[in-house]
Input
Amino acid sequence: MQNKIGNKSFIDKTLNDNKLYAKKKFGQNFLKDQNILSKIVEAAELDKDTLVIEIGPGLGSLTERLCESAGFVLAYEIDTDLIPILNDNLKEHDNFIIINKDILEVDINKDLEEYESKYNKIILVANLPYYITTPIILGMLEKTKKIKKYVMMIQLEVADRICGKPKTKDYNALSIAIGYRASAHKNFNVPRTVFIPEPNVDSAVITLDLYENPKYIAKNEELFFKLIRESFNQRRKTLINNLSNTYSKDLITKMLNDFNIKPNVRSEELDIKTFVDFSNYILENGGEK
Ligand code: SAM
Output
């Protein structure tokens, strides 16, 4: 499908006409490839009963596709200069709103109240700004349970980490933090050449399907998230050494023994359930030192 916005000449002309340039500080890399846009929208499996949240619409190339396929699009754009341009670029559509806010500052549940009752599911679709990918994803997962699925273009390396499985080099605290709430999979890789300007890294589109009922329950989620961050503090170190600044070495040694796990285990050898069990054990056996 050929659309108006996501191509090189339209992006160049829009920036030129408005005397604008892609702002590095906002991670602006505009997608110019219609085929990639189609594949993102396909992965999101949208219909007119879907409410879409988009982060960083930019010049509107993805937003245009989302308006065509979804019921309504609620898009957050931090760059005030882009707001009139977006409204103009998307003027053929009447099922979107552009909110000029930093997504990290948004009260998403409150914003959704106005729109959610008319739609039967809420999906996040975005080509994310790479400088704040992790805070955006972790922040949204923490702030709201209303979004059932996330389809996001992110930096390839981060995509591999999020989808990383135990005992692989990609598996880390981020894989566990996200895997606690969702199943993650990579849809496809995206070369850097499809953006204006071209970034220094390649990208990938990933999907997170949120668990309806959590697979494991950490009784104190704050403790759980802190535990996984600290467990992966230094990859070369054993779990005991990574954790011994915060928790007593005796507690961690006893915990490994009680779980029948070797004392020199490294964090990347342990699955999500084990970290949840550890956090519940630590909670019940004394917590931090
Ligand atoms: N969606 C467009 C595309 O695919 O061509 C632009 C994607 S560009 C990688 C990221 C977009 O996120 C930019 O438009 C940028 O201004 C916006 N952005 C950056 N930081 C943001 C923030 N904290 N909150 C909302 N939008 C942000």
About this structure: The pocket of S-adenosylmethionine is lined by residues 26-31, 55-58, 61-62, 76-79, 102-104, 127, 129, 132 (CB under 6 Å).
